[in-house]
């Protein structure tokens, strides 16, 4: 686990999760939000609500550029929304510099880092992710990881290694520790819930 620069200070903490597809952003984000006692928001879900369909279908009909335009619009709105929350972003959100700047300036960014091999084990039967519907998804994951890992690092305030998908609570605890050390969370606020079983 490594950390970058000190995270921004807000009266209402906004925590954003970035990382590769299948890296655990939604799973960790939901549990982290529950333990902090704030809402959880998934930018991909917000996009699907807006378009009234799946991202996969939107990709097929409008292409990646149109999707990235919409993604930037939604992320900007979520960052500007008042109140604390935990925000899980799409795996490709960091491809645009504008998104990286929005996330880093307006939230505390946690990068859930996994290897392409770990991701492949989790995603090999997944048919919902447009960029992985190729003959050799492992090669595609390696290519994506090589391209995106430096961007995730550039965007993140903290990096959490998430090799084991079963270690969700460990990741949540690491995230809480980093946020507390950075002075972004009151330790007494989450002490009662850390280690609690999810409901």
Any key phrases for this structure?
Rossmann fold; 199 residues; disordered C terminus; alpha/beta
Describe the model.
There is one protein chain. With 199 residues, this protein is α/β, with parallel strands linked by helices. It has a single domain, classed as Rossmann fold. Helix content is 51%, strand content 12%. Strands 1-6-5-2-4-3 form a six-stranded mixed sheet, sandwiched between helices. α1 packs across α8, α4 packs parallel to α5 and α6 packs across α7. The longest helix has 19 residues. The radius of gyration is 16 Å and the shape is globular. It starts with a strand and ends in a 9-residue tail after the last helix. The N terminus and C terminus are likely disordered. GO terms for molecular function: shikimate kinase activity. InterPro entries: P-loop_NTPase (IPR027417), Shikimate/glucono_kinase (IPR031322), Shikimate_kinase/TSH1 (IPR000623), Shikimate_kinase_CS (IPR023000). Its cofactor is Mg(2+).
Short description:
It contains nine helices and six strands; from the N terminus they run ββαβαααβαβααβαα.
Annotate the secondary structure layout:
Layout: E1 2-3, E2 14-18, H1 25-36, E3 40-42, H2 43-51, H3 55-62, H4 64-80, E4 85-88, H5 97-106, E5 108-113, H6 116-123, H7 137-155, E6 158-161, H8 168-181, H9 187-190
Parallel strand pairs: 2-4, 2-5, 3-4, 5-6
Antiparallel strand pairs: 1-6
Helix pairs in contact: 1-8, 2-4, 3-4, 4-5, 5-7, 6-7
Protein name: Shikimate kinase
Pfam family, one: SKI
EC number: 2.7.1.71
């Amino acid at each position: 686990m490594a950390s970058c620069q000190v995270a921004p200070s807000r009266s209402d903490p906004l925590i954003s999760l970035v990382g590769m597809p299948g890296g655990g952003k939604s799973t960790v984000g939901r549990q982290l939000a529950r333990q902090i006692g704030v809402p959880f928001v998934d930018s991909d879900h917000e996009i699907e609500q807006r378009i009234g369909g799946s991202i996969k279908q939107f990709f097929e009909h409008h292409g990646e550029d149109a999707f990235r335009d919409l993604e930037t619009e939604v992320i900007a709105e979520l960052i500007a929304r008042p109140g604390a929350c935990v925000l899980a972003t799409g795996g490709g959100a960091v491809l645009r510099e504008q998104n990286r700047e929005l996330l880093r300036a307006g939230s505390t960014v946690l990068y859930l880092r996994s290897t392409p091999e770990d991701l492949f084990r989790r995603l090999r039967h997944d048919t919902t992710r447009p960029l992985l519907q190729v003959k050799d998804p492992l090669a595609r994951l390696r290519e994506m990881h090589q391209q995106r890992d430096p961007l995730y690092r550039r965007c993140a305030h903290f990096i959490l290694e998430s090799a084991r998908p079963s270690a969700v609570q460990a990741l949540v605890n690491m995230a809480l520790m980093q946020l507390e050390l950075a002075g972004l969370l009151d330790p007494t606020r989450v002490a009662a819930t850390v280690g609690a079983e999810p409901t």
